[in-house]
Amino acid sequence: MRKLRGLWKRLAGRLRGSKADQDFSAEIESNVELDVVDGVHSGLSHDEARRRALIRLGGAEQARQAHRDGRTLLWLENLLQDLRYGLRTLRRSPGFTATAALTLGLGIGACTAVFSLVNAVLIRSLPYGDPQRLVYLFTPNPHLKIPAEVVCPSYGDFYDIKRDSRSYEDMTSYEQALFSMATQGGTQRIGGARVDEGFFSTLQSAPELGRAIGAEDNQPNRAHVAVISHSLWVSMFGGSADVLNRTLQLDGTNYQVVGVMPPEFEYPFNTDLPYGEAHIKSTRIWVPLALDAKKRADRDPNANVSVARLRPGVTIRQAQGELSTMMARLDKQYPGEMREWGALVESFTALSIGPVRPLMRLLLATVGLVLLIACGNAANLLLARAAERARELGVRAALGAGRGRMIRQLLTESLLICAGGGGVGVGLAFLFLRILPRLDPGNIPRLNESSLDGRVLLAAIAFSVLTGLLTGLLPAWSAARTDVTEFLKSHAVRGYAAAGNRTQNILIVAQTAMVVVLLASAGLLIRSYINVVSVDTGFSRSTVTFRVDLDSRYRPGPPQRDFFKNFITRLGALPGVQAVGAVNHLPLSNTESLDFFWVDGFPNVKDQMSEGRSVSPGYFAAMNIPLIAGRTFSDADEAPDARTAIINERFAKTYFAGRNPIGGRISTDEKQSQWSTVVGVVADVRHTSLEEDPGPQLYRANEGFDGASIAVRSTLEPAAITAEIRSTLRSIDPSLAITDVGTMGNFVSQASARRRFQTSLLTAFAAIALLLALVGLYGLMAYSVSRRTREVGIRMALGAQRSHVLLLVLKNAAALVGCGVGAGLVAAWLTTRMMRSFLFGVSVHDPTTIAAVCALLLLCGLMAALLPARRAASADPMKALRTE
Q: Are 345 and 137 in contact (CB under 8 A)?
């Protein structure tokens, strides 16, 4: 440590300037002062004497500058000389150079790739003006057992808040929507939003063409206008400049295009909202909300989202306090059946990226370890190479080369290798970003915007420089410690080799310990992922699903019920179709409906809630949800006065314990004036999440859909049955289209996408780390065997068997790996506890995973050492003894 401090002091001294520079400056200043004294004695004032002295000695300043310029030129000349010498040296060892650059490239590439993800998700600015001042407004209710970020202020409350609040510069409320857009080829379903006049001004985002939606557009019964996204402009209108005032047909109504947004603006994305409409991935069109007076005064919660922009200097805490006060006042002013609304103000950016921060940190920590392992490998290579160059370095030291100059030369070579590694790393990061979309990262916001932009490339350069210093400093310092006297006595080979071996052993142990941490973490994530995808979902994953949304031509009530009944009947008649059913919200669709309920004969408590679904008679058969007791719905249950219900097994066990649920009565009416009779019990279904146990579930017969998801169980392939479905829908109503076509297996895959993504990445990085560690162990063993050739020859000449030599090398390798595993187990025990939130169904100190990791490392370590061991055992003793 003292030697490192001494090195730092010498380097700092060089930065401040050499003693020669200081002496030169002192001499010039002394001459100036002497001339000033003579001038004062001649009767001049001090200032005048100094001015004349400076004029006379102006050449001294020029000399000073020339001296500085000479020092700079000398430094540049030395640098260029070091670079030329380093390049020549590396060119003479292409195998070593390529191996070191590729090793470091893996680590730099991993860091660059993950940093590009972090940059896109956490760092890069959102396409809105000053997004740090944007907030979401929520009004959670203690009676609703749902997340607080689900309910926004009702329209009546929102406009009161907008009028009276002093915390916000601007506010907006909007609703997500799915439109049927007429195209030349038929009908296309696109995601959109109905927005009020403050939408674009609150986000401070202006169209690149035309204008935004204004207050005059949001009046009822005004001309219909629309703002479209850049992608829709290109796909629908070919990017034509005359797009403004052209017409689009949405849900049978003509809209005039008045603006086109920039390419980066498609808010709201599905990932921007914690509980948005899952089937609307992004927004491609915006139309006026145009609420009438009655809707603007409505105090019941709607499917709207409220966003506000804080005034400069106003904090979220201050806005929270004001909103709480206002909601308490509105509760008293407008008492009703569902009041007691609370207040919650959350950061716009934190709400979308907050849930993924832990994942990004985990990935950064992972690639940091990979980079350190790569640095350890490269350092081992440089140490071995320095041992081979011990004679050269000793000669240079004997001829007067300073230690600083030797360190600079070796660091230059290290930085050149890392520059090559940086180029390899950027190439690998580019390939990674091309593969990334295939990994299906799930709902991670803006991950698809990851790219090698200027910030990422600067980070790659920083990683390369840092890696060069970490990699080269230890070998350079060790090599520069060559003792000239010892070199002249023994050529500095043995002493340096022994010191180098000790350092290399330490590096291998450290690498192995880090690999243990990575493999243990990856193993826990793999087991968690297997547990998640293996859960019993309660439905068939092969069922084909799609969605149909009706437009305004289909009125609520009989028209909607008749359409879906006719459509389902015709689908059921298709060849190969076994069952067809409809539901308002599919399981795992990120959309939930909840009901308050009361059970006859049960000691009900306040705010009992269950998951609710409205289904058609064939739904349970189409989803292959097992019937536990009773029966499923029939056509008669769809009649308005047929009050029947089906519950799940969890509901039956909780609220009908010890009695038969069939025939029991359930009410969803707070006044309990209407009761539904339980006619069946079905198996539990995971509606909300694969990782949450199912709660009480209540199914009611179809009460009328304006949009529904259809489930089809068929013996045909999904592609074949989908074509038949499209044809059937066209024969009923050509203006309608199906969306979100897939299988229930796709929903399961999407629900586990983020877990699969993090598991895949961590496993890949752990595999890279393991490969690097094994390459390093192999290289160390091979180097050790080559350095101990004479020792091996003597042992065999004295009667040692080849098997003894083989075991000797393998024991050395096993000792290194064993020490690394031991240190790694301690580190893993400390670090895996921080992964608790990433695990499912497995302990943070799972003994099976830890044992598997230890066994894998020991086995791979011995295999890596086997080839050098066999080479040592097969050596010819006579040749070994003749080796110098």
A: yes
**Three-class secondary structure of residue 189 per DSSP:** strand
DSSP 526-591: HHHHHHHHTS--SS-TT-EEEEEE--TTS-TTHHHHHHHHHHHHHHHTSTTEEEEEEESS-TTSS-
Q: Residue type for 126, please?
A: L
Cα 418 to Cα 408: distance, rounded to the nearest angstrom: 15
Measured between alpha carbons, how far is 809 from 867 in angstroms, rounded to an integer?
A: 10
Q: What is the pLDDT of residues 122-147, one digit of tens each?
A: 877 677 888 889 999 998 877 766 67
Q: Which residues contact 440 (CB under 8 A, 6 or more apart)?
A: 749, 750, 753, 756, 757
What are the tokens at 823?
Answer: 């240190």
- Which residues lie below 8 Å from residue 799, measured CB to CB, with a gap of 6+? none
- 359: exposed, middle or buried (Cβ count in 10 Å: 0-12, 13-18, 19+): buried
pLDDT, averaged across the chain: 81
At 180, the amino acid letter reads S
Cα–Cα dist 796/788, whole Å: 12
Q: In this structure, what are the phi and psi dihedrals at residue 714, rounded to the nearest 5 degrees? A: -145, 160
- Report which residue type is found at 706: D
Residue 356 sits at the vertex; the CA angle it makes with 355 and 362, to the nearest 5 degrees, is 125
Q: 179: left (phi > 0), else alpha (psi -120 to 50), else beta?
A: beta
What tokens does 111 get? 């860091």
For 419-446, give the DSSP string: HHHHHHHHHHHHHHHHHGGGG---S-TT
* 677-719 pLDDT per residue, tens: 999 999 999 988 898 889 899 999 876 777 889 999 999 999 8
Please give the C-alpha separations between residue 39 and each of 26, 27, 31, 42, 49, in angstroms, as whole numbers: 20, 19, 13, 5, 5
Residues 6+ apart with CB under 8 A from 700: 612, 613, 614, 615, 644, 645, 646, 676
| Residue-wise pLDDT tens digits, 641-684 | 788 999 999 999 999 998 999 999 999 877 788 899 999 999 99
Helix, strand, coil abundance in the chain, percent, nearest 5? 55, 15, 30
Using a 10 angstrom Cβ sphere, with 0-12 exposed, 13-18 middle and 19 or more buried, the burial of residue 525 is buried
DSSP, residue by residue, 241-270: TT-TT-EEEETTEEEEEEEE--TT--PSPG
User: How many Å apart are CA 326 and CA 335, to the nearest integer?
Assistant: 14
pLDDT of residue 541: 93
Residues near 289 by Cβ (< 8 Å), separated by ≥ 6?
A: 173, 174, 175, 194, 195, 196, 218
Token pair recorded at residue 168: 């916000």
Instruction: Measure the CA–CA gap between 198 and 195, rounded to whole angstroms.
Output: 8
Cβ neighbours of residue 778 under 8 Å, at least 6 residues apart?
Answer: 864, 865, 867, 868
Please give the torsion angle defined by the CA atoms of residues 758, 759, 763 and 766, in that order, rounded to the nearest 10 degrees. Answer: 50
Query: What is the pLDDT, as a whole number, of residue 1?
Result: 42
Between CA 9 and CA 7 the distance in angstroms is 5
User: Alpha-carbon distance 332 to 770, whole Å?
Assistant: 65
pLDDT tens, residue by residue, 731-771: 998 888 888 899 999 999 888 888 888 898 899 899 888 88
What is the chain's alpha carbon radius of gyration, rounded to the nearest angstrom? 37
Interior angle at CA 272, CA 586 and CA 209, nearest 5? 115
Tens of pLDDT, residue by residue over 394-410, are 656 555 555 666 677 77
CA angle 729, 735, 738 (to 5 degrees): 50
Handedness of CA 253, 257, 258, 261 (dihedral sign): positive
Cα–Cα dist 548/279, whole Å: 11
Q: What are the pLDDT digits (tens) for 564-607?
A: 889 999 999 999 999 999 998 899 887 777 788 999 989 988 77
| 227's tokens | 């703002």
CA distance 533 to 516: 26
Q: Take residue 210 and report the two structure tokens written for it.
A: 């035309």
